[in-house]
Amino acid sequence: MAEEAGKALNSHTLSVLVENKPGVLTRVASLYARRGYNIDSLTVGVTENPTISRMTIVVHGDENVIEQVTKQLNKLIDVIKVVDISPQESVDRELALIKVSADASNRSEIIQIVDIFRAKIIDVSPKSLIIETTGSGDKIDALEELMRPFGIKEMVRTGKVALVRGVKLTQFDK
Amino acid sequence: MSAKESERFSGAKSLIKSLEYEGVDTIFGYPGGVVLPIYDELFDSDIRHILVRHEQAAAHAADGYARATGRTGVCLATSGPGATNLVTGIANAYMDSVPMVALTGQVATNLIGNDAFQEADITGITIPITKNNYLIKDAKELPRIIKEAFYIASTGRPGPVLVDIPKDVSTSIINYEYPETIEIKSYKPTFAGHPKQIKKACELIEKAERPVLYIGGGAIISGAHDEIFSLAELLMAPVTTTLMGKGAFPEDHPLSLGMLGMHGTRYANYAIIDSDLLIAIGARFDDRVTGKIESFAPNAKVIHIDIDPAELGKNVKVDVPIVGDAKMILKKLISTLKIKLPRTQEWMRKIETWKKEFPLDYEVSGKDLRPQYIVQQLNELCSDGIFCTEVGQNQMWAAHYIRTKKPRTFISSGGLGTMGYGFPAAMGAKVGCPDKDVWDIAGDGSIQMNIQELATVVENDIPVKVAILNNMYLGMVRQWQELFYNRRYSFTNMKGQPNFVKVAEAYGAEGIEVTKKSEVRDAIKKALKSDKPVFIDFKVTREENVFPMVPAGAAINEFVEYGGFR
């Protein structure tokens, strides 16, 4: 058990193909709630096949937790395939919208930072602006930190979406 | 009509036809507003409908029927309260992996979500306690969904599947055609074990000197009892079963250790602790079995055979996990094993010593009416019967003293521990196996949780026999209060018990009261001779305890030592 406790709590990204049916998200979410697994983020959207949706779930835990999460997900009848893509080379992105306090005195400073981050300003008003940014979670965290002194009024993040690089596919061959 | 022909039927008639195709002969149910179209079709059907007095009993009866027969049990309830009353029964079936299809009525589709009269989101409510569930929105989907429901409920690791049927789906007219095959791309259970893993298991088994077979309910579901018998004799290895695994190996066999765990025999628990190889078959390392997990089989390599991959490595570290059907895997394993002479002579000698030193026992002398004695007499006088149990002390005494010899003859609520389970489950078992004597071993607390089913068994001529071990306490809770709460019997003393004999008679059943040890056998014989349901009210010693006992969270060889009993 000492060995178990010593295991690092790593972040894992699970790519989960599910039937595109009502109630599936509830089943997945309720499984996490019931078994006490800690979800960092969960995104869901339809795939190239309209009958199938893909969930990208980021979950923290040691190897045992990740193994149980994967197995319990696989038990759900509507879950077609679960792949832990963390060990594979993959690309991942997150989208965030950040509404920042801004007026004439600091607008240009904000715009400079936004440019450095290759983010976009998608709404401007006399007292605020909204920044749209995509990228890794770290990049969004960094931008958020830099905006904080100006005053973040509201913010929304989508959570991570991810795909394995190259020709390899997460097909439904379960 | 063949399944291929298409006819125009209502959703309700389509449902009944589909159930007939699935070979359903009995439904346990209770009518109500939105299931009227289904009940109207049932009226003309050959399917036997048993009208229970509470929906919870319908689910437990379907569960008992399924466990006794191996077929899928079916229960039917109306929407709202009818459906929610099934919930405990469904959860019970889920925990013990029982194949069940629960059919519920739902308000019409245009009312769903409007808080309509008798509306409940039963698919939402039962997500965590069903293997899968469906809300049928379009009557055209009904035949496929029913086919899927029965397939999912009965294959892989079995479990309950709920199908919620809105009233307008029941009344819609469709072109009915029952599908012959199904294809669920996301559901493909593994049956054959991986050959490499089986080979690895064989290597471990061939080296083992102190192996133990640890058998759970999965072995019974798989029908693996013959293979377990062969493996045990081939290895000359002792066999211990969980509560759910009782019947997977004959308990009168010299290799049997009985049950393990919290109320396991001393020798079973000692064998587990001392073993060098544990062969777990269809068992899930429940906390009532393992106790303190770090101390469970500390020196043993573990081979774990289970059809549910999620059980492998869930609670204990496994050296050789094998996913698949226990019977198929064991067949392969036995044929691969190279064992000329078993290496367990010394091990078995050690176990024999433990068996002699620490037998299952209780205070036998004197005239006191001990519950253990009653169960022993039931075991002797009705050795070919089916025994269901309620939950609590009665259940553990039954587990200790009913020496189960065949699978599907000991039926008990293991995972959920549902008081009120045994009586309706016995009703279901008797309906499924009418030629067997079916007993419910009950406590005075548990029997009152579904006592209304006396009406059902009398009306439907289901002559189950109920042995009430009446100590006028919630016995197991009282035992814990005695041992761990300084005898502060907080609300476990049930002073207001009814006269069970008169209750039975009031419903048209037979009642027998037994107060003396000398009356026990005659009462049992009289009950067996009767063609009616019978309650025997055994007024037993009030403060009898279940021993052996390991406190929750302790290692399984750390038994409670109390009053000369251990």
Radius of gyration of chain B: 24 Å
- Structure classification of chain A: alpha+beta
The mean pLDDT of chain B is 96
* Strand residue content of chain B: 15-25%
EC number (chain B): 2.2.1.6
InterPro entries (chain B): Acetolactate_synth_lsu, AHAS_TPP, DHS-like_NAD/FAD-binding_dom, THDP-binding, Thiamin_PyroP_enz_cen_dom, Thiamin_PyroP_enz_TPP-bd_dom, TPP-bd_CS, TPP_enz
Pathway (chain B): Amino-acid biosynthesis; L-valine biosynthesis; L-valine from pyruvate: step 1/4; Amino-acid biosynthesis; L-isoleucine biosynthesis; L-isoleucine from 2-oxobutanoate: step 1/4
GO molecular function, one term (chain B): acetolactate synthase activity
Summary, kept brief:
The complex is a heterodimer of chains A (174) and B (566). Chain A is an alpha+beta fold and 174 residues long.
What does this structure look like?
The complex is a heterodimer of chains A (174) and B (566). Chain A is α+β, with helices and mostly antiparallel strands. In chain A, 29% of the residues lie in helices and 40% in strands. Chain A contains five helices and nine strands. In chain A, strands 5, 6, 7, 8 and 9 form a five-stranded antiparallel sheet that branches. Chain A has a four-stranded antiparallel sheet with strand order 2-3-1-4. Chain A is elongated and about 55 Å long. Chain B is α/β, with parallel strands linked by helices and 566 residues long. Chain B is 36% helix and 17% strand. Chain B is globular and about 70 Å long. The interface between A and B is medium-sized, with 24 and 19 residues.
Features:
heterodimer, A: 174 residues, 4-stranded antiparallel sheet, elongated, B: 566 residues, alpha/beta, 6-stranded parallel sheet, 20 strands, 36% helix, globular
